[in-house]
Amino acid sequence: MELEMLTPATPTIHTPALLSVLGLMASCAMAQTTASPDMRPPPAAVEACAGLGEEAACVFTGPHGEREGLCLAGPDPSKSLACVPTADIPDLTYPILDSGQSQCYDAAGTDIQCPNADEPFAGQDAQHRGWNPVFEDQGDGTVLERVTGLVWQTSPDTDGDGLIHASDKLTYAEALDHCEGLTLGGRDDWRLPDIKTLYSLIDFSGTDPSGTDESTGTDLRPFIDTEHFDFAYGDTTAGERLIDAQYASSTLYVSDMGFDARTLFGVNFADGRIKGYGLDHRSGEKTFYVICVSGNAGYGVNAFADNGDGTVSDAATGLMWSRQDSGIEAPQGLDWREALDWVQTRNAQGYLGHRDWRLPNAKELQSLVDYGRAPDATGGPAIDPLFETTAMVNEAGQTDFPYIWSSTTHASASSRPGANAAYLSFGRALGYMEDGWYDVHGAGAQRSDPKTGDPGDYPYGHGPQGDAIRIYNAVRLVRDLEGTDPVAGAD
């Protein structure tokens, strides 16, 4: 079923791409380089910090000339301070960490060699390196992520018995109290992370186990760095599903889903999704795994500015966006390959004065969501009114707003591991439940669609909550704000 588009709404690298501090030293190009965890900094970078304290200013001469930086601690086995070029730590309040995806895929789900710019499927997630996370284990149950400045509790083992199981899970109210009262690592300013802060930890080198044998989590890879964070799948001995590894955020849905009065957005690090979860069940309140966060309380807050030329800049993330989505030019939507091709066509045209647009990865795209907005609460999409979003008619016959494709493959443990790609829902995240379509996961959910196929093959959606399958979704372009390829006089 293709969905009718209406007029635009009036605005009313556990990471294989992990860059340690040592990797930063070796590469001096954090945003673009992948380093193995056992790399060491150049001797000059270590010598520059001899006799200095952590975070002291330093200067050393490396392969790219003289570099100024800060003395920072590296991971084991080296405990020496090394001079980290400050240019490699972004001066941003809301830097988007890389997705961790390093494999390219085609629409059939087969892994492929990453294509050249003029080849099919060019421009997908694995071909763009963002800010790789720099985790530093503090040795006290906490880990510092250097790029974002966030300090995390490393384990959801709330009862402290050394195991992670169903009894560690907390209700929303308990989670708030747990973080507010937590004293750990010499800190007492812990908080329950909001959904954007929590999502900064998602790692798309994971594989979704949905639909596989749920008797074991062996040979599966979760969507979180297990080198620095403790993780367990759902407690099947307590009757849970393997995928019941939902982590709580502090973000509640602003809309009433129609069957759950209170809904909390959470990240499922077992299956790699954001969904709204109803808090009130007949059997009692829903419970979640919980990890608390400290530091950088402004993380997740955008700083948008309309450039007056069809683009919107975000000084907080360092990203520039197209103000309008693809709905005017492609009103019937685009499948995933078409979405990638649509971007390359715009680059060839010098669209809005630039030739370096890309399809955003899932983490970049999620940064656009305004979780204070939703169709049934504010009458518009879950995005700042600076942006124009093409309206559509959804499966329930309601005026709504589209799913937006990301460049990120949502890999699974199936025989076609790369057949789906992640999207963000800026309108209702519909599902078919018993007698009709409901907003089952909320505006701002991150789910996935098949990259190709016929939506008509899914008249009642897919999965346990009947997620609406559209396949033909919209696109919103992104580029790095400090890009160097403006096109003078472009149409």
UniProtKB/TrEMBL annotation:
- Please list which residues make up the signal peptide: 1-31
Q: Report any Pfam family annotated for this entry.
A: Lcl_C
The segment annotated Disordered runs over 443-463
Alphabetically list the UniProt keywords.
Answer: Signal
Q: Which residues form a coiled coil?
A: none
Q: Where are the transmembrane segments?
A: none
Task: State if rRNA processing is listed as a keyword.
Answer: no
List, for all copies, the residue spans of the domain called Lcl C-terminal: 141-293, 310-427
User: What protein name does the entry list?
Assistant: Lcl C-terminal domain-containing protein
Species this chain originates from: Imhoffiella purpurea
